[in-house]
């Protein structure tokens, strides 16, 4: 076999490049829905309350101001000049009410800033007469100005806007912020209560998928009856699967032991008792094939999780190349950047590469040729390493492509030449998935079958 380093690295196809769709998780989705619902309810409630409260409050404030103006006007009307000065001074000092003559040259701006102020101004005009002027600024001085007349003389009454109560805008803003904070906190608590059991169930399912049945045990004493029933059912299922897995391991170990012992005796007796060299060689090959099939079954049934560590992909491929160096019917070309490392189990990844090379040697020969040309390439993409093993055979029909990784399935062209158990590609896919990677098969544009492996960068 000859091995060469090619400088051109083929790009892995779309199946391994495609990123899974990123969706919002259940906690944040529940939180956002609850927060939106609560916030909308708060805004609607505040708006309704504000609408129902504006009218009575405006009438009450306008009534108080009208009473103040009427009392001041009556007091000034029936007091002499000296008493009037004293009265104005007393009102300014004790009631914070300033009364000044109104000049024709005074410049004022209407006291209108929102619906509430418009309602107060309209109510004051209705109670004090059409000649009443309600201003928010007179000659540049801010305040609540009310213009009225006493026996033909015009006056301004200036009072503090605090008589109308605290600032409505700030009050609504404070209440809205407080209600929003409380609502968001409540939404977070509710979302967590809903999400936490599902998160625990998801973690337990992932651990059970990896064969760790002890870590998948859920709390059966939770307060919520529905969650408690789900946890109890899941634990019973995990216990049954654990027992089935243990029975399967024991059964496979027994099959391996019970079959290999007579196979070893058969091999020894064949080599010693069969005189015909050709018959002896064929019988020995059949026994070796049976032994290899047993190994395939055990490899596929292995329940142990992979032990991941950074390993050199260059060294691993070189070791795999050394193992197939004596094959006269296969040529392998390798193109891997120096220093490429992957996070994988070295033994498992070596088994995957060996299975792919063996599959290419058996079924990837060029049409009309007895030589299998295999290319092994790799490239680094962000946090991943993309490995490609391709042959230059005739490929497989598109309808068969997705079924090649099914256990015991073989394509039509492989069935007539099959000497294995139909588990090579199934073992490769299962092993790569166990190492946290992705595995896919595709036909190449120039002919042949390509296996794509995506592993995390070491």
TrEMBL record:
<dbReference type="Pfam" id="PF02518">
    <property type="entry name" value="HATPase_c"/>
</dbReference>
<dbReference type="InterPro" id="IPR005467">
    <property type="entry name" value="His_kinase_dom"/>
</dbReference>
<keyword id="KW-0997">Cell inner membrane</keyword>
<keyword id="KW-0812">Transmembrane</keyword>
<dbReference type="InterPro" id="IPR003661">
    <property type="entry name" value="HisK_dim/P_dom"/>
</dbReference>
<keyword id="KW-0067">ATP-binding</keyword>
<keyword id="KW-0808">Transferase</keyword>
<feature type="domain" description="HAMP">
    <location>
        <begin position="192"/>
        <end position="246"/>
    </location>
</feature>
<feature type="transmembrane region" description="Helical">
    <location>
        <begin position="172"/>
        <end position="194"/>
    </location>
</feature>
<dbReference type="InterPro" id="IPR003594">
    <property type="entry name" value="HATPase_dom"/>
</dbReference>
<keyword id="KW-0547">Nucleotide-binding</keyword>
<keyword id="KW-1003">Cell membrane</keyword>
<dbReference type="InterPro" id="IPR036097">
    <property type="entry name" value="HisK_dim/P_sf"/>
</dbReference>
<dbReference type="GO" id="GO:0005886">
    <property type="term" value="C:plasma membrane"/>
</dbReference>
<dbReference type="InterPro" id="IPR036890">
    <property type="entry name" value="HATPase_C_sf"/>
</dbReference>
<dbReference type="InterPro" id="IPR050980">
    <property type="entry name" value="2C_sensor_his_kinase"/>
</dbReference>
<keyword id="KW-0472">Membrane</keyword>
<dbReference type="GO" id="GO:0000155">
    <property type="term" value="F:phosphorelay sensor kinase activity"/>
</dbReference>
<dbReference type="InterPro" id="IPR003660">
    <property type="entry name" value="HAMP_dom"/>
</dbReference>
<feature type="transmembrane region" description="Helical">
    <location>
        <begin position="26"/>
        <end position="46"/>
    </location>
</feature>
<keyword id="KW-0597">Phosphoprotein</keyword>
<keyword id="KW-1133">Transmembrane helix</keyword>
<dbReference type="Pfam" id="PF00512">
    <property type="entry name" value="HisKA"/>
</dbReference>
<keyword id="KW-0902">Two-component regulatory system</keyword>
<dbReference type="Pfam" id="PF00672">
    <property type="entry name" value="HAMP"/>
</dbReference>
<keyword id="KW-0418">Kinase</keyword>
<dbReference type="Pfam" id="PF16524">
    <property type="entry name" value="RisS_PPD"/>
</dbReference>
<dbReference type="InterPro" id="IPR004358">
    <property type="entry name" value="Sig_transdc_His_kin-like_C"/>
</dbReference>
<dbReference type="InterPro" id="IPR032408">
    <property type="entry name" value="RisS_PPD"/>
</dbReference>
<dbReference type="GO" id="GO:0005524">
    <property type="term" value="F:ATP binding"/>
</dbReference>
<protein>
    <recommendedName>
        <fullName>histidine kinase</fullName>
        <ecNumber>2.7.13.3</ecNumber>
    </recommendedName>
</protein>
<dbReference type="InterPro" id="IPR038421">
    <property type="entry name" value="RisS_PPD_sf"/>
</dbReference>
<feature type="domain" description="Histidine kinase">
    <location>
        <begin position="254"/>
        <end position="458"/>
    </location>
</feature>
